[in-house]
Here is the input.
Amino acid sequence: MGNARRILHWLGTSGRRVAAETVRSQDLSALACIVMATNDRERLLKLAEGGDAQAQLELARCFDFDEPKDPEQAMNWYGKAAEQGLADAQSAFGECLRDGVGTPADSAAAVPWFEKAAKQGDVDAQVSLGYALFNGDGVAEDQDAALRWYRTAAEQGDMDAQYNIAQMYRQGSGVELSIEDAVRWYKLAASDGHVPSMHWLARIYGADGDYPLDMEKALEWLERAAEGGDAECQCSLGVHYHNGEGVPRDREKSVGLYRAAAEQGNDWAQYFLGLCYWEGEGVPANRKTARAWLRKAADQGIEEAASYLE
Here is the structure.
């Protein structure tokens, strides 16, 4: 595994950075593991300065993720390890170039490093290269090539690649639109805990757009996505429990779901939670608390909330 600054389609984010502790490579030397565990950067620095590529990579990760951070040093040591051919380092170096970590952002300069790492089998780089090709980010747009790289990563079990393929089929982007194929890829990713895939399965089975309704499956995926922290699904599931749609009516449970989503900034959840406090549904009535949540919703553009504040 690499650093895994990953970009997923249609998530509304320019990238995803994951704490280094959760993505450390499994191929570290014993000495590097000891050094990492004791946070002894000086000893790691000696190894890196002596040309040890793995030490250079781990030193870069220390500067990238551990306090005190130093993005420029991270970029420097990723680059040295990348030049020696380490796929993890090449992928991370490309991510730094793309995201502007320790250097001005330069997607065009990032792409060759993603390609080097992808050809060595680095899954993170395969997804990053697929994204660049799909969007024409630093390279000429080529959705056929993007799909090939996504498939290469997906066949290795990468959830993000599986999700991106599903998105392509759902949108008919670069492939013929096929909800059946989209569902198949979403389920592959969701089976490994990929929450955005659960989100879309809930929407598809919940008759979002022109999809036929399957309430049982919609509720199953709403529950799973809500448990995974998806705010929109928490809010939607809250509505089901509030109204008793497909589930027994449970206003207290709906309040808990609204609150979980509202605390993540979901506008409609803030509105519904405010209404629950206003009317005393599932929670003791409290107009002051109600107005606080309704104000948050109104500030995000929920016009219905504003009428309670006049």
